[in-house]
Amino acid sequence: MKNLTFFLIALFTIASTHAQKKWTLKECVEHALENNISVKQSELDVDVTDIEKLSAIGNFIPSISATGGVSENTGLSFNPVTNNAQTTTFLSATGRINVGYTLFDGLRNFRQLQRADISKLASQYRLAKMKDDISLFVANGYLQVLLNKANLEVIKSQNQVTQDQIKRTNDLVDAGVLPRGDLLEIEATNASEKQRIAVAENAVTISLISLAQLLLIEDYENFDIVDEGYDIVEQGIESKPVTEIINTAKENRSEVKIAESNVELAEKDLQIARGSYYPTLSAFFGYDTRYTDATSFQSQIDPDNPTVTQQIGVVEETGQAVIGEFPNTQTVIVGADPFIDQLYQNDGIAYGFQLNIPILNGFAARANVKRSKINLERTKFQLEQAKLDLESNVYQAYVDAKGALKAYEAALAALESQELAYQYAKDRYDVGLTNAFDFSQSKLRYDNAKIEENRTKYDYIFKTKVLELYFGIPATELKF
Q1: What percent of the chain has pLDDT over 90?
Q2: What kind and span of H or E run contains 317?
Q3: End-to-end CA distance of the chain
Q4: Which of 70, 89, 91, 337 has the greatest number of CB atoms lying within 10 Å of its CB?
Q5: Cα separation of 284 and 106, whole Å?
Q6: Which residues have C-beta within 8 Å of that of residue 150, sequence separation ≥ 6?
Q7: Rounded distance, CA 147 to CA 154, Å?
Q8: Is the pTM of this model over 0.90?
């Protein structure tokens, strides 16, 4: 009983600990990179390129095949060993081994192997880009949750002030210092803030669910993130010259590397297509043997009467007969030789070279070459476009980060001013020098200034992280 109680307590403790787990941004990014479906699909694309390389390597290995067959013939058939026609029933078996090897095919085998290596590299670049994109999605979703939580805390804290003001205003109204209309105004503000709290809580829940779905986490109710320790980290990335960031991005970003790999693949495709202009030289070797259990007819000398005497002519002058002695043969049925003996008695080999010279194939080779040339030019244009797009995106990210910093600094200044104005209005309201409506408006402006400060803060954090990714900082090493 004690052991059962201890087990239940331990199980409850583990479950509670798991339910209370809060995810850090790094854990979210790492989990997404390990479990995201798009990342897994990109990893499968890399695996496919390994298969392509295996096939390219296989082109350098001789082809070996073996064939065999067993048949039974009834009636008039040709004996596969003696090649004589006979009417009987017999069993026959044949076997053959063929070996072929391509000696020269316009270097297409070498080009295919080189293309497989480039294709794998391109797939790895696409995988890296997919991981960067997923990391940005996760970071954006994570920061959205932080923003919603921060806004919720602002509204809750200000509502607590409103609750205190309701109590104080109620006492002042009862004492006859303030009119009841001020109390009604404060209570209306409280009702409005309660509504805003409900909306903010719903925004937090929705953003958490969206982030959990991105991470493929199904336990939405217990999913939560660490909402402390995330602040602006001064790394000075936005203070670097934009040209330095652009040059670094061109060297490190996967977009340009993917486009460069596509150009190399198109060049290899053109070389492979041109290889069809050249002759193909191949060597072959074949070995075959056969077996049959069919009987055969053979002529043998009669052991009892080995010779016979026959007249072979007449002497013309004397008319005397010329007698000759000949072997006395008879036809007998001979059984099949043993299986093992027939394998080497009836075997044969064939070997040689085969030269295939292309002369006219309906312009298929020429069309493939022209098509490959056009594709090569297209990939070159795509490479130039990728560089231009990357440069434009870096400029945009650079300007966005600069603008986000200015917006954040402006929001801080506005928040400071609104906080002073709010404190001044609160002090005046506490002594009865201003009415509840003016106080509520000042408080609302202060709340909005605080929410705007949160928005610009996390917007600036996200945009600096985008700029850092362009600068070559891995997504898992971004600092917050």
Answers
A1: 22
A2: none
A3: 50
A4: 337
A5: 18
A6: 227, 454, 458
A7: 11
A8: no
